[in-house]
Amino acid sequence: MFTGIISGIGRILEVTPLGDSAAHGKRLLIEAPAGYLDDVQLGDSIALNGACMTVTSFDPKAACFTIDISAESLSKTAGLDAPGWVNLEKALRAQDRLGGHLVSGHVDGLGTVTQLARVGESWELRVLAPRELARFLAYKGSITVHGVSLTVNRVDDRPDGTEISINLIPHTVEHTTLGRLAPGDRVNLEIDLIARYVERMLSSR
Fold first, then answer.
1. How many beta carbons lie within 10 A of that of residue 143, not counting itself?
2. pLDDT tens-digit profile of 26-36?
């Protein structure tokens, strides 16, 4: 489990195919901030852009670690198939503060950025979510975008999906990769865990 509070920005340095067919996944070499891996062990879970991955090797001195990602996971996520910046979050410990909301690290769908614009001291991020996620999106509800716990400020149902508007404070822009987004970029979305269970209970009645 995670909280959606990003603990570091990493960078994918290398992407190595694990085979020569589309059915094979890839191995990622990720550079983390200095000291980030000091308490990490082999097999630990670290979320990359909101997708829970397992550490398969690491070098604390070089601040680098590797993860293996399957072809299935690659097809369901964005930003993990090529070198670039990624949001990092270590798995939640029992004594940690729940600063965001409960996040499983399982991507529910891919959204498309429609706008990122400065509004006063903050930024407005608009994302078009797939239609199948519409029933889980609500005003003042929680959503995870590229692993970042955020609050939905507006919901606009459209024929091609549901556009949500989110306010990003300067701290979020400075300490996550969201400030680097541009219209047309694909982002990983995870719906609120509670909304998932409520929908399941109502649909089974």
1. 26
2. 999 999 999 99
Instruction: Please check whether residue 89 is in contact with residue 48, taking contact to mean a CB–CB distance below 8 angstroms.
Output: no
| Euclidean distance between CA atoms 56 and 90, whole angstroms | 14
- 9 in Cβ contact with 87 (< 8 Å): yes
**Band of the pLDDT at 105, cuts 50, 70, 90?**
very high
Tell me if residue 11 falls in helix, strand or coil.
Answer: strand
38-74: b (≥16 Cβ within 10 Å) or e: eebeeeebbbbbbbbbebeebeeeebbbbbbbebebb
Buried b / exposed e over 102-138, threshold 16 CB at 10 Å, is bbbbbbbbbbbbbebeeeeeebbbbbbbeeebeebbe
- For the chain, domains (ranges, CATH) are 8-90 (2.40.30.20), 109-203 (2.40.30.20)
Transcribe 73-135 into DSSP letters.
HHHH-SS-SSSEEEEEEEPPPTTS---S--B-S---EEEEEEEEEEETTEEEEEEEE-GGGGG
> In this predicted structure, what is the pLDDT of residue 73?
97
Gap between the terminal Cα atoms of the chain: 28
